[in-house]
Amino acid sequence: MKILLVNPPDCGRSIPEERYGIDTLRQIFRGEPLALETLAGNLDGHEVRIVDLKAAPGSLSRELADFRPDLAGLTGVTCEANTLVKLAGQIKESCGATIVVGGVHASNDPEFFNRAEIDYIIVGLGKLSFRQLVDTLPADGGRIPGVARTRPGDRLSFTVRSFSAADLVQSAPPRYDLVERYRPHYTLKSLGLDMGAVASAFGCPFECSFCCIAGLTGGRYLTQSSESVVRDIRLLRDIPVIRLVDANTFGNPEHARLLCRQIRQAGIRKNFLADVRSDTVVRHPELLREWKEAGLRSVIIGFEALDDARLGELNKANSAAANREAIRILHEIGITIVGDFIISPDYDEEAFAVLDKYLEDNPIDLPIFTVLTPLPGTPLYREEKERIVIDDLDYYTLTNAVVPTRLDEKIFYENYARLTRNAHARAKL
Q1: Is the pTM of this model over 0.90?
Q2: Are 34 and 174 in contact (CB under 8 A)?
């Protein structure tokens, strides 16, 4: 079977840019399409291509004419959902391929894709279930757990998949070779270095109300064996920077420690970027020191809020004291910090000023600011559904307020842009 895997183009829209001419807040989603490389790794026996429309916009028509796929697989986050539907229609019209959609939005809101342009929806991790679907076609693959056959005009009916280590199919490494032509686009821009993506874990053991990760694994936290992670790192032979694209690389500290030691024993000399919670840093500073010796250069931390009350509202299961202490520890170790803070639409001008002052007193190497967004499928969405005033998913980029702002909207975005400028002027990366 000829299978085309499609990474959608940059397509999120920006309210501050469109309405107020503020062009510094637009969120661009770029990076190596590891999810597609992972799917491709378990499709031996089939002819597989990946087209990355973020790296090569406008190349889909040419790819379709040249390859004429029997099946097309598309993946994307929430702000890309509308575009996925358009791409599905384009592919269906061009070559009549069977269309399968998966990824974060499909896993959290599968009903959105219950449309005539789409044939199947993969709900959750798809490395194994997608292969099972391919193996059953042209028969009805909708009986596979985690695979939904679309029923336009009716509700989806499918068996929820219970995810386990078997779904990781660790014996089949990602097909990094399929994106070799796009490799110059995958860089760490601040340093001008090539960057590759490797997964060591899936899901997260925590239940933050705003997070959409749980839908990918049914709430489970699954780790790759350290041997398979080292293998994947080695496959990216000439790539100096490895982004561990897990939601929480250190969610299982013992697994993270073993992986760190195996990287060092293997003689791997690379720089790593990874996600970690601040309370993990505080509880296991020695683990971060070990990783520093193994090449950990930067960590991404979701600090989210400045006080315990707000952290509690987000079900973060963390504390403001842990956030401050983690900053101190990481500076002491020499690991740079990319820190995410959530701006609530309820912010007033004082709240923006307080956050700005916090970052003066608690320096973050690169602060990132996102707007609290009720993504479909999350607990926050269920809480905020009645307040939502923007339903167009193109705006769900985490930089637009889709519920009413307390401040006048223009003033809200002006404060948001000012905060971002101030923070980036102080940034060290």
Answers
A1: yes
A2: yes
